[in-house]
Amino acid sequence: MLKFCSIFSKSKSKNLFLLRSRTKSTSSSQSSPAAYTFSRRIFPYSKHSSLLAPASISRVPPSRSFATDSEARDSIEYDVVVVGAGPAGLSAAIRLKQLCHQKGADLSVCVVEKGAEVGAHIISGNVFEPRALDELLPQWKQEEAPINTPVSSDKFWFLTKNRAISLPSPFHNKGNYVISLSQLVRWLGAKAEELGVEIYPGFAASEILYDTNNKVIGIGTNDMGIAKDGSKKENFQRGVEVKGRITLLAEGCRGSLSEKIMGRYNLREKGGAEHQTYALGIKEVWEIDERKHQPGAVLHTLGWPLDHKTYGGSFLYHMKDNQISIGFVVALNYQNPFMNPYEEFQKFKHHPAIRPYLEGGTVIQYGARTLNEGGFQSIPYPVFPGGAIIGCSAGFLNVPKIKGTHTAMKSGMLAAEATFGVLNEGLDMDMYWKALRNSWIWDELYKARNYRPAFENGLIPGLALSGLEHYLLRGKHPFTLKHGKADHEATNAAQLHSPIQYPKADGILSFDVPTSLHRSNTNHEHDQPPHLRLRDPKIPETVNLPVYAAPESRYCPARVYEYVADEHNQLKLQINAQNCLHCKACDIKDPKQNIEWTVPEGGGGPGYSVM
Question: Which family is this sequence assigned to (predicted)?
């Protein structure tokens, strides 16, 4: 599988996005602006892919000069800037370049990605529905896309502590494929580069740039080489401004810039949307005994070990090469502050119907990520002055299907078509909103709109209502159910619950957090400002600990947050930011919304390869 080179060297903490050749004036009386030369990086994709598109593809030439001083940021201009090299962002970039080629236009497109490689931060189940890919790249089978394990069986179980009760499967996965989404994204990255898209991994977009009219004109990256205390290290490099006539935000679920944009322009209110609801997905990839492997077999469960008030379930998908994806999803509106989603997952693997699949196997990789579950009711108005929000940043996951890749890709394609119309035909970006409402995304999410809120009153009422909706009404219910409390508001005070005693990890089927974290390939530069920020540093000790029994120490699947005794034997919150998986659970679930997730230095975070 292809590897994208990082623009970020962890050993030296240098931003290599600009390969600079500085010439200084010899004049002693007046310094001329420093000149920088931008050099295109070449990626070794595969023997079938072209390495570089001709320079004439891009309106912005491959060599650029900048005027700068010791503090000013370099500035680079493109026609379109896409933030996030996931399914939505890459689909948007590909579609833009396709339109350029079809209509003889000339637009420069840049994709920036905070992961060290394209695909490094991508994690999903994933049973892939190829509908959007069929539209985007119809020849994907002939072009060796990493999609080659068709679904062969589709089972759905209700688990009690010791039994697995088979239920009719509502997922309809015939024609779908079991895949690694991180691998598919790498392939999409290669296709985008072949078309002339410039992709820069290791590039953390930390702020939105605005003009004097409050219009978005691009993004800025964070400075590199800043120490924890805020001082500049020897390898300090100023961030870069990446400006675009249109900026598309494709950061994934709970994107930090997307959330700021939605707040600044009141996009939820403008779209008549409810608050977003979320779940936390935790996943492992195992290599299992060949005799137990059933390529394409798909299994979903609900029930044990979760209580009947908590929405969630599991998945187990047989991939290729004797590998399986096994994961556990817990809705973040759970009430009990003593619940630990990571430990629920470890406990689940010991169920007598699940354990036989794993015995004798080996864990290859571990990861976690939040996902949107708000569906139709929570879609914000996705257009803002100067750009749009696409993919899971907006929230197009189909909850009853447990799928969002195909809708994310389609949203990126629709945004690309609207962008092309704006830049070449003088149209309005609101075309994207209109296209969404007329697309199969809208139809699909509308029909599925009542499934998730049906479970607000518990498992049994949820099964009854969702079954009625799925099998009889088929999305034609005259009413649209509303979501309950926001996830952070759903957490009860600790005094209303009893602590949960979880079994100790056995090191065979279940594992402690440090062991799992090692398998995620997570790495951050240790000496940098914390990217997990407390709006009020007193709240952990004055509210979270006494009222909610320190829930951040349990909802985080990477042990980022822990309470340790100080010299006076008083418990204080310690943030181990270097452990962060970028799952965003803390940004969502903290009871007082006191934790703000921001991007760390580019290239930091997990290093997924088969997730």
Answer: Belongs to the ETF-QO/FixC family.
